[in-house]
Design goal:
The complex is a heterotetramer.
Chain B: H1 3-32, H2 40-58, H3 61-85, H4 90-113, E1 130-131, H5 136-139, H6 145-153, E2 156-157, H7 158-176, H8 178-188, H9 190-195, H10 200-226, H11 238-248, H12 253-272, E3 276-278, E4 281-283, H13 285-300
Antiparallel strand pairs in B: 1-2, 3-4
Helix pairs in contact in B: 1-6, 1-7, 1-10, 1-11, 1-12, 2-3, 2-4, 2-10, 2-11, 3-4, 3-10, 7-8, 7-12, 8-10, 11-12, 11-13, 12-13
Chain C: H1 6-31, H2 36-48, H3 51-76, H4 84-101, H5 107-136, H6 140-163, H7 185-189, H8 205-222, H9 224-234, H10 236-241, H11 246-273, H12 284-294, H13 299-322, H14 328-343, H15 345-363
Helix pairs in contact in C: 1-14, 2-3, 2-13, 3-8, 3-11, 3-12, 3-13, 4-5, 4-6, 4-11, 4-12, 5-6, 5-11, 8-9, 8-13, 9-11, 12-13, 12-14, 13-14
Chain D: E1 3-6, H1 16-31, E2 36-39, H2 46-56, E3 61-64, H3 69-75, E4 84-87, E5 98-103, H4 105-119, E6 124-131, H5 134-150, E7 155-162, H6 171-183, E8 188-192, H7 196-206, E9 210-215, E10 226-232, H8 234-244, E11 253-256, E12 263-265, H9 277-292, H10 300-303
Parallel strand pairs in D: 1-2, 1-3, 3-4, 4-5, 5-11, 6-7, 6-8, 8-9, 9-10
Antiparallel strand pairs in D: 10-12
The chains are: A alpha/beta, B mainly alpha, C mainly alpha, D alpha/beta.
The complex binds adenosine-5'-triphosphate (2 copies) and magnesium ion (2 copies).
Domain ABC transporter (chain A): 6-241, 258-506
Protein name (chain A): Ribose import ATP-binding protein
InterPro entries (chain A): AAA+_ATPase, ABC_carbohydrate_import_ATPase, ABC_transporter-like_ATP-bd, ABC_transporter-like_CS, P-loop_NTPase
């Protein structure tokens, strides 16, 4: 029997007080594609970063092709034939593709011969794997998909026998993802070993041979893909039975709260992010926006939340909003009755170094209720209110003095939600409400959102989790490339149809 | 202004530009590798002192030069330790180094030479003498070019020639060699360098060390070539002008040459023509003194071509929080 | 879960760092052939041994409180204002103009006027770097450094060509009129029956500095603006999400910072020299950086650190008088304090964190 | 116990302050006494230093440099039992316990101006001043008059180093100024610039032309390259004040000129060879005439301008 291409034995890694990996052991056979799944923060990226020498494990052993191979640094990993495409690319933005490729594996002290050799080799690889990129283009001018190709080429140029890809499809269109999978299959056919980290069970089922599940820093199980199914994988991931549908009464939509017409956003780099969005949300209704990350959902939330400027017309309760950013910002939006749960709670929704009580007035600090007098804030009142809110939202521990960074992800999200929902807004913008949140908290959060809807409020929900969209929304709009591809009712559609729309396939063509 | 005066101003410009150029290139290496260096001034000052002190004691300018470089590298190492190894704030470290040099030079000089914080005057072999290039005498008579060659090109000190030679050398090193590729990469995207199997720490220390050497040359030039000995605060803000020139030059070697020559020219002009009378009103000498800084602010404001620093500049490279 | 208890962070680490800085300074003193213990005794006696010593120590402290607060306020908004020196110099110009060219009936009114002038000029000098940072993204560190030099040149010009009285040789303004002279601690304390050295320059501005500490504390931790300023300092994207305008925060923060630095001039220009001299700030703007770092940007810490540096300055002046240790020794100590508490902070923090982590897991 | 306060530039400026230092040292070695001393590092410290010495009971307290005059006037009334001396300064009203000492620098400068003109082959001489203040113009004016007296067609290039006290201690700039003057044909350069002069003398020596030192005897700095030094006997003034001690006469302004040997030019083994007999004879002749009142060297102070030199 052949030795496994990779064998990890008792790997542990702590970042200060956070135990990211706990005693992990795993074997991957050569010539296979091995999937790894797990919730956010489960420790997947950490484990792979250890394998490719980016982090150093606190304990444990690594065997490559059966021989003990210590990997103290990236150099050792490269020597061992391991290449990794990171979740966040490791490219020098203002270098050319060629320069990025040769970085670290130059031939001799002068660049010219190295570049010439790499150019030839790149041509060769491009032909062989259909990985075409302009060798002289600067990385910053390339699309994300092409940048990923450069990362793969980098690994292949270094003669990697083991290729690790960390959430490679998160940034890709379905078509690009399909092409990536074709390349992976070809590499597997050549006998290379591939580790694929993804959140998408569909991809796992589609391409992997075996799959490992991680939870809370530990490896819970490894199974043959053909012996399992998505439902079972999901259960292994979160550690208990997953509730797929939310209990909710049919919606009782009222008048239009939000009317958006021909909304356009161009970002700082001059790229059109929203290309004429039109939609509406009524009182007592949840409109879910589905789509692959990076298709403009974030910009939609930001322009509605007053963070970025745009053009077009947006009516809130029939009154026009200023989109130019000149007389409006997040604060004036709040005053108009728009609350906003941002997609990235750690960078936007919360100040991680602030205590919980300081965070519960974030964005609302000018509310007269929080002022002791004309000059000073009434911190006592704020603390008292925070304690009450934490109670109601079951934030644990219910300590208003604790800094936000010291709460777990789920509890951080509850603090944000408590702040925004309890404002009783006419419209709630909510992005990725349950990202990285455990199942118990998910149920709680979903319940609160439905309650808000039932109280006659309008909710615009953005989520990359199709399941969440399907179970929460009363109507679903699908975004692709800055446009709305179509609208569906949850009862009359399924993941397959939505998936096609998300891939930019119009109904006529479908 | 006649040709001879022009040549004289040019000559003065060259002399005054050399320390700026050397320090500017020092900053260029460091900042290209992602380590901001506002401690150029301190390193120069320290080198000026040690080079003068050792040259005075030993009687040999070369020993002085080596000592100057060594002391500047010591401070550079401290900067590296603080900002690379211990991921401290690079700006604060630079500020500390400037103060350290400003204080230590005088304290040591006073204890050593008891001349109020200066070194004895350097004589003969303890100084860099001007080098007369071949044919300087012979060509003197050739119109226009002759005097130019004899007075401007010939007759500078060894360190001046080294300074100017550093410009093409730096360009070649940065853009044509493996070392340069890695050095630039480490200032733009250290994680890319790290995952490519190259030590970020080592690259950054190398860059900081080169900056130390160049600041050492700059300081030694001040004390042993331009002048004959050390006096307190003799760098007189040149490190900051060099920093300004670096921004002005957008972190590029050839631009650095032009920027430092420009700032050197400003100094030379301010020296030569205290208050400049331009018809209706006089430009006060203080305005000329402030001009490099004003120009830098204008450049920084992005009104005249934006200066974009290396992307990872100023940030310690942290893998694990 | 944070890695270290709070007391370790705000007391233990600065204290050890300070000890390290002092230990190295002692080594330097030893190396130049002097006795560090004797030097220390001399410094303590010289700065705290008499009301004269106290008078100077408190005078310097007052300067450093203002410049330290200036740096600290900006730190809270994640802005590094190295321009305190230039702003304080401009503040001096403001004070001089107010005292020289306005007829004041009483020193108390003159004090109010001078405070306004000092703060306004200091703030104005900070406004340009602030605007460039907010609107053009020019790094405030570099622009404030440049503005220090520009301020020096400007003051040089003003003193030499405009303010210098006719026939005077020294580039300094005329003496301020008698009525603008501020009461010194001697004047304030003797009616209370406390005798205080008549010749020390500590004056009523000291109480202004104490008030400023309290004011800054209120501003940062009790007002809405302070809340927004801290939020911006911790996370710019979050501030924007909350509708906090970065431009507004940067501008107002730098104006406050520059104003505080400028206020120092009330102490040294109006209270001490009673005229504007060249280089009146004597580097106090830079010492503000060390003071803010030492004081962990908290007004109370700033006050303590300012007192420490006041002691170093007065003690250092005494050293220069009675020993062969030159006054520059203070600059060395100051550099080491900045180095250890500011730049090499992690050198101590990393191992200490590990110790506390180990202690905690054992405790479990 | 007397005390000496040296102004910016420091006691080792090889020039003005060093002269004061030499005077104090002479007193110390002759009497075996000790004296307190401090060098100013910044404009703002002057008053503190004065008070500190007065507090400790130092007497007399001798200060060098015009910039110390105002602080002295400020502090002196607070310590009526202490005597203060200021050299080079001017006070409209002199407090009873203050003695002001000034020198007739234009007379000494006149003599070295003559020597310079006689030595110059090119008919061009230079002057590098420190800080641009009336005092230094006073030096330059006397120098120019002396030079013109020898050679009416001579051209005199005069530059000042700066406008602030930093100009007393900037040898780099001094050197550059000297080089510029040399390029314009100057072959004798007179430096009246405190520590900055070190750079001027260095540049002159490097270019193999002659320079003239100031205040102290600077002939030894570059033997054979320094034509002479304009002596300003600050050392004598300091020495005498210290000798007088408690008995020091105060409340007046003392003016020391050629007649009192307060100013002069230096001749020693380092420059003997440079001075011909007729040069010395001419200078000595002029000196006698000035002392006798037959020759009037116009003072810049007379009406704030110089008859033979524009600034
Ligand atoms: N560099 C780091 N420093 C400190 N803690 C870290 C670091 N990287 C990761 N962590 C922590 O380690 C844990 C595991 O993180 P990791 O990135 O491996 O998760 P993941 O499974 O890849 O999650 P995701 O699906 O979000 O990518 C998390 O709690 C995270 O906060
Ligand atoms: N990067 C980090 N730095 C410091 N502490 C962290 C970090 N990431 C997580 N923690 C801490 O580790 C603990 C566990 O956090 P984690 O996010 O893994 O919780 P969790 O079990 O996933 O809970 P939840 O499901 O609510 O997210 C928390 O107390 C959190 O404060
Ligand atoms: Mg990950
Ligand atoms: Mg979590």
């Amino acid at each position: 029997m052949t030795a496994p291409a990779i064998e990890l034995n008792g790997i542990s890694k702590a970042f200060g007080p956070v135990q990211a990996n706990k005693d992990i052991s795993i074997r991957v056979m050569p010539g296979t594609i091995h999937g790894i799944i797990g919730e956010n923060g489960a420790g997947k990226s950490t484990l792979m970063s250890i394998l490719c020498g980016f982090y150093k494990a606190d304990a444990g052993e690594i065997f490559i092709n059966g021989t003990l191979t210590p990997i103290p640094d990236s150099q050792a990993a490269i020597r061992a034939g391991i290449g990794m495409v990171f979740q966040h690319f490791k490219l020098v933005q203002n270098f050319s593709v060629l320069e990025n490729i040769i970085l670290g594996v130059e031939e001799g002290a002068l660049l010219r011969p190295s570049l010439a050799k790499a150019r030839k080799e790149l041509q060769h690889l491009a032909d062989e794997y259909e990985l075409r990129v302009d060798p002289d283009a600067l990385i910053q001018d390339l699309s994300v998909g092409h940048q990923q190709r450069v990362e793969i080429l980098k690994a292949l140029y270094r003669k990697a026998q083991i290729l690790i890809l960390d959430e490679p499809t998160g940034v890709l269109t379905p078509a690009e993802a399909d092409q990536l999978f074709r390349i992976l299959e070809r590499l597997r056919a050549e006998g290379k070993t591939i580790i694929l980290i993804t959140h998408k069970l569909r991809e796992i089922m589609h391409i992997t041979d075996t799959v490992s599940v991680m939870r809370r820093g530990q490896m819970t199980d490894t199974v043959k893909t053909k012996d399992t199914n998505p439902q079972q994988l999901a259960e292994m991931m979160v550690g208990r039975k997953v509730l797929l549908r939310v209990d909710k009464a049919p919606a009782q939509p009222g008048a239009n709260v939000l009317e958006v017409d021909n909304l356009r956003v161009t970002d700082d780099d001059g790229v059109d992010r929203l290309k004429g969005i039109s939609l509406n949300v009524r009182a007592g209704e949840i409109l879910g926006i589905a789509g692959v990350a990076g298709n403009g959902q974030s910009h939609l939330m930001q322009v509605l939340g007053g963070i970025t400027p745009g053009t077009g017309t947006v009516l809130l309760n029939g009154q026009e909003l200023d989109l130019t950013g000149k007389s409006s910002d997040g604060r004036s939006r709040r005053k108009r009755g728009i609350a906003h749960v941002p997609e990235d709670r750690q960078h936007e929704g919360l100040i991680m170094d602030f205590s919980a009580w300081e965070n519960t007035v974030f964005g609302y600090d000018d509310d007269p209720a929080y002022q002791a007098n004309a000059l000073l804030m009434d911190n006592g009142a704020i603390r008292a209110e925070t304690a009450a809110k934490m109670e109601r939202f079951d934030v644990r521990p219910p300590d208003p003095q604790l800094a936000a960074k010291n709460f777990s992800g789920g509890n951080q999200q509850k603090i944000v939600l408590a702040r925004e929902i309890e404002r009783n807004p006419d419209l709630l913008l909510v992005g990725q409400p349950t990202r990285g949140v455990d199942i118990g908290a998910i149920e709680f959060i979903h319940k609160r959102l439905v309650e808000l809807r039932d109280a006659g409020k309008a909710i615009l929900l953005v989520s990359v989790e199709l399941e969440e969209i399907l179970s929460l929304s009363d109507r679903i709009a699908v975004m692709f490339d800055g446009q709305i591809m179509g609208e569906r009712l949850p009862g009359e559609t399924d993941e397959k149809e939505l998936g096609l729309l998300m891939a930019g396939v119009r109904e006529e063509a479908a | 202004m006649d040709y001879a005066t022009l040549l004289q101003v040019a000559d003065s410009t060259v002399r005054l530009s050399v320390p700026l150029l050397l320090a500017c290139l020092a900053g260029l290496y460091s900042e290209r590798a992602g380590i901001f260096d506002i401690g150029l001034e301190g390193k120069m000052l320290m080198a000026a002192f040690t080079s003068a002190a050792l040259a005075a004691v030993s009687g040999s300018v070369w020993i002085g030069l080596l000592a100057g470089i060594a002391s500047s590298m010591l401070l550079a190492g401290l900067h590296g330790l603080a900002s690379i190894t211990f991921r401290g704030n690079q700006l604060i470290s630079g500020v500390a180094i400037n103060f350290l040099a400003s204080g230590l030079t005088v304290v040591i000089a006073q204890a050593w030479f008891e001349q109020g914080g200066r070194t004895p005057s350097l004589q003969g072999a303890a100084r860099f003498e001007p080098i007369t290039l071949p044919l300087a005498e012979t060509l003197q008579g050739v119109p226009v070019f002759g005097p130019l060659y004899a007075e401007l090109i010939s007759g500078q000190t060894a360190l001046a020639y080294v300074g100017f030679a550093m410009v093409p050398l730096t360009w070649w090193l940065l853009f044509r060699t493996r070392f340069g590729l890695r050095l630039r990469a480490v200032g733009e995207a250290p994680e890319a360098v790290d995952t490519a199997g190259v030590s970020v720490i080592r690259m950054r220390f190398a860059a900081v060390a080169i900056a130390g050497v160049l600041c050492g040359l700059a300081g030694a030039y001040l004390a042993t070539a331009l002048q004959a000995g050390f006096v307190r605060e003799m760098t007189a803000g040149r490190g900051f002008i060099a920093l300004a020139a670096l921004i002005f030059a957008k972190w590029r070697p050839w631009y650095a040459l032009s920027a430092t020559l420009l700032f050197g020219l400003l100094q030379a002009v301010a020296l030569r023509f205290q208050n400049i009378d331009i018809g209706t009103f006089t430009v006060p000498v203080q305005f000329m003194d402030a001009l490099p800084y004003i120009l830098t602010v204008v450049i920084l404001a992005g009104f005249v071509g934006k200066a974009i620093p290396p992307r990872a500049g100023g940030e310690p490279y942290v893998k694990e929080r | 879960m944070s890695k270290m208890p709070k007391w370790a962070d705000i007391v233990l680490i600065p204290l050890i760092n300070l000890m390290l800085a002092f230990a190295l300074s002692a080594l330097v003193i030893l190396a130049i052939g002097e006795d560090p213990v004797e030097a220390l005794i001399l410094m303590v006696k010289g700065s705290f041994g008499s009301t004269y010593g106290w008078g100077y120590t408190l005078y310097y402290t007052t300067n450093f409180v203002f410049t330290g607060l200036a740096v600290a306020v900006a730190f809270h908004a994640a802005l590094f204002n190295i321009g305190g020196e230039g702003q304080a110099q401009l503040g001096g110009l403001g004070v001089a103009l107010i005292c020289l060219y306005l007829p004041w009936p009483h020193w108390s009114l003159a004090l109010l006027g001078a405070m306004l002038g000092a703060a306004a000029f200091g703030a104005a000098w900070a406004a340009i770097p602030a605007w460039l940072q907010a609107k053009r993204g020019s790094h405030v560190v570099i622009t404030t450094i440049m503005f220090n030099f520009i301020a020096a040149a400007l003051l040089n010009y003003v003193l030499v060509n405009l303010l210098r009285p006719p026939r005077a040789q020294d580039p300094s303004s005329a003496k301020f009129p008698e009525v603008t002279h501020l009461p010194t601690l001697h004047d304030i304390l003797s009616p209370l029956g406390i005798s205080f050295s008549k010749s020390a320059p500590a004056n009523i501005t000291l109480f202004l500095a104490i008030a400023a500490c309290f004011g800054v504390w209120l501003l940062i931790w009790r007002t809405r603006f302070g809340y927004q300023l801290r939020a911006f300092g911790k996370s710019e994207p979050a501030a924007i999400y909350a509708g906090i305008s970065p431009t507004r925060i940067i501008m107002i923060t730098m104006l406050i910072s520059g104003g505080l630095a400028g206020l120092m001039a009330v102490n040294n220009v109006m209270g001490e020299a009673e005229k504007l001299v060249l280089n009146a700030t004597e580097g106090a703007g830079f010492i503000g950086i060390a003071v803010a770092l030492m004081g962990r940007s908290h007004p109370f810490g700033v006050a303590l650190a300012a007192l420490l540096f006041g002691f170093l300055y007065q003690g250092g002046a005494e050293l220069a008088l009675w020993t062969d240790i030159p006054r520059e020794m203070i600059v060395v100590i100051q550099a080491l304090v900045i180095l250890f508490t500011g730049a090499l902070d992690n050198m101590l923090r990393m191992p200490l964190e590990r110790v506390f982590l180990a202690l905690r897991s054992e405790g479990k | 116990e007397p005390a000496v306060i040296f102004d910016l530039g420091g006691k080792f400026d090889k020039s003005f302050n060093e002269a004061a230092f030499n005077g104090a040292e002479r007193w110390a070695t002759e009497t075996g006494g000790k004296y307190l001393e401090i060098e100013m590092q910044s404009e703002a410290q002057r008053e503190q230093a004065l008070r500190r010495f007065a507090e400790t009971g130092a007497n007399p307290i001798i200060t060098t440099g015009f910039a110390m005059a105002d602080p002295v006037a400020e502090v002196a009334p607070d310590y009526p039992d202490t005597k203060f001396v200021n050299i080079d300064g001017f006070l409209p009203e002199i407090p009873p316990n203050v003695q002001m000492i000034v020198f007739e620098e234009h007379q000494g400068s006149y003599l070295v101006g003559m020597l310079a003109a006689m030595k110059s082959a090119n008919g061009t001489v230079g002057f590098v001043g420190g800080m641009d203040i009336p005092l230094i113009r006073h030096f330059a004016c006397g120098y120019a008059q002396g030079a013109k007296a020898v050679n009416p067609d001579i051209s005199i290039i005069a530059n000042m180093t700066g406008t602030t006290p930093a100009a007393w201690n900037n040898p780099v700039k001094g050197g550059e100024l000297a080089q510029a003057q040399i390029a314009q044909g100057a072959d004798v350069i007179y430096a009246a610039a405190g520590g900055t002069g070190v750079g001027v003398l260095q540049a002159a020596a490097d270019a193999d032309i002659l320079s003239i030192g100031v205040d102290s005897n600077q002939n030894h700095l570059h033997p054979g390259k320094v034509l002479t030094s304009m002596l300003k006997r600050v050392d004598v003034a300091v020495y005498k004040s210290m000798i007088a001690g408690d008995a020091l006469e105060t409340g007046s302004m003392q003016v020391l000129g050629l007649a009192d040997d307060g100013v002069g030019y230096a001749v020693d083994e380092n420059n003997e060879a440079l001075l011909s007999e007729e040069m010395v004879a001419a200078a000595e002749g002029a000196k006698a005439k000035i002392i006798a009142g037959e020759l009037d060297v116009v003072s810049y102070y007379a009406n704030d301008s110089c008859p033979v030199l524009d600034f």
